[in-house]
C-alpha cells in the first residue's frame, strides 16, 4: 500500500481530476476489501505468487488509499503470470509478480469491460521490481508459451489502446 498511497497522493495533488486505480492479487486483497467496507480489513492469511503484495495496509497508508485511490482491481495469480510473460516476451524486461500486477489489472476482464477505464486516452502503469526467483520465472514462462503468443496476436496487435 505504500507505493500506491505515495503515487496516489502525489498524482492527486498535481491533478485532482486524475483517476487512480490500484491492483491487488485475489489472495491478498485487503485494500480492495477495506475500500469496499470503508475501514481497514486485515486478512488472516495471504496466498499469492506476488509475495511483495502480502503486506497489509497500515494506519498511515489506509487514509490515503481510502481518500485518493478511486478503485482497486483484484486479479488472479494466473493473470499476474500472464503479465510477467508479456513483460518478458514483448518488453524484454524481467519483473517480479508484484511488479506485473498493474499490467495484469489493465489486461483483466474487469478493466476491459469498464468503458470509463478502457477508453481512457492515457493509462500509466508502474512496473517496479525485478526481485524474481528465476526458477519460478522460467517455470511460468515455459507453461503456456503458445497461449501467450496467441494472446499477443489476438489482443495486442488488434487493440489500439495498448501501444508498446
Question: How does this structure look, described?
Answer:
This protein has 164 residues and is mostly helical. It has one domain: Rossmann fold, CATH 3.40.50.1100. Helices cover 51% and strands 6% of the residues. The protein has nine helices and two strands. Strands 1-2 form a two-stranded parallel ribbon. The longest helix is centred in the middle third of the chain and has 15 residues, at 77-91. The chain is globular and about 40 Å long. Pfam families: PALP. Its cofactor is pyridoxal 5'-phosphate.
List strands and helices in order, with pairings.
Blueprint: H1 2-14, E1 21-25, H2 30-37, H3 61-68, E2 71-75, H4 77-91, H5 97-107, H6 109-112, H7 115-118, H8 134-142, H9 145-156
Helix pairs in contact: 1-3, 4-5
CATH class: Alpha Beta
Low-confidence stretches: 151-164
Count up the domains. 1
Series of secondary-structure elements, N-terminal to C-terminal: HEHHEHHHHHH
The share of residues in helices is 40-55%
For the sheet with most strands, the description reads: 2 strands, parallel
Q: Can you count the beta strands? A: 2
Distance between the ends: 27 Å
Cofactor: pyridoxal 5'-phosphate
Keywords: Pyridoxal phosphate
Domain Tryptophan synthase beta chain-like PALP: 1-129
Pfam family, one: PALP
Amino acid at each position: 500500500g505504500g507505493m500506491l498511497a505515495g503515487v496516489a497522493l502525489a498524482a492527486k495533488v498535481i491533478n485532482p481530476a486524475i483517476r487512480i486505480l490500484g491492483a491487488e492479487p485475489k489472495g491478498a486483497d485487503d485494500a480492495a476489501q477495506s475500500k469496499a467496507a470503508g475501514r481497514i480489513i486485515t486478512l488472516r492469511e495471504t496466498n499469492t505468487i506476488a509475495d511483495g503484495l502480502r503486506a497489509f495496509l497500515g494506519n498511515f497508508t489506509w487514509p490515503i488509499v481510502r481518500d485518493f485511490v478511486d478503485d482497486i482491481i483484484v486479479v488472479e495469480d494466473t493473470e499476474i503470470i500472464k503479465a510477467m510473460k508479456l513483460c518478458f516476451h514483448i518488453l524484454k524486461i524481467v519483473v517480479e509478480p508484484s511488479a506485473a500486477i498493474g499490467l495484469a489489472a489493465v489486461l483483466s476482464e474487469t478493466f476491459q469491460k469498464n468503458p470509463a477505464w478502457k477508453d481512457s486516452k492515457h493509462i500509466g502503469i508502474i512496473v517496479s521490481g525485478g526481485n524474481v526467483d528465476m526458477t519460478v520465472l522460467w517455470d511460468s514462462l515455459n507453461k503456456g508459451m503458445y497461449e501467450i503468443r496467441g494472446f499477443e496476436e489476438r489482443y495486442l496487435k488488434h487493440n489500439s489502446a495498448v501501444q508498446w
